[in-house]
Amino acid sequence: MQSQVQLAIVQQHKTGKMVSVATIKNKVASQIPLPFITKEVSLYKTNPSAYVEQHNHLVGQAAPSQPIENKTNETNNQEQKISALEQRVAQLEQTVASLVEKLAATDK
């Protein structure tokens, strides 16, 4: 958990992107308590270069895109579920329309 946050901070720093609680929260794959992220970001902001030097070893240990890949997989799964639900709703709408037509035809 701690190393995920530290790795995300180091990656953000190395890519030249802003390090903030929000960006780090979005980068980590698992649910990490906000106070923990806030503490790590505060440590980083007091001396960014020292923080990166201290935690630079994490980049070699973990795949740089590992947290991002987990979020991407989760997003893809959610998109697939949404697509399947949209198809199901369309089928149900067609069925309802067909039943309404049949009901209207029998009433005449």
What this model shows, in words?
Residues 68-102 form a coiled coil. Keywords: Coiled coil. With 108 residues, the protein is an all-alpha fold. The protein has 2 domains: 1-64; 65-108. Helices cover 81% and strands 0% of the residues. The protein has 6 helices and no strands. It has helices at 2-14, 21-27, 34-46, 48-55, 57-61, 66-107. The longest helix has 42 residues, at 66-107. The protein is rod-shaped and about 80 Å long. The N and C termini lie far apart (68 Å).
Give a brief rundown of this model.
Residues 68-102 form a coiled coil. With 108 residues, the chain is an all-alpha fold. It is 81% helix and 0% strand.
Specify the helix fraction band: over 70%
Number of strands: 0
CA-to-CA gap between the ends? Answer: 68 Å
**Are there runs of 5+ residues with pLDDT below 50, and where?**
none
Shape: rod-shaped
Radius of gyration: 24 Å
* Proportion in β-strands: under 5%
Largest sheet: none
The pLDDT mean sits at: 84
What is the helix/strand order?
A: HHHHHH
In DSSP terms (H or I, runs of 4 or more residues), the helix count works out at 6
| Structural class by SSE content | mainly alpha
Number of domains: 2
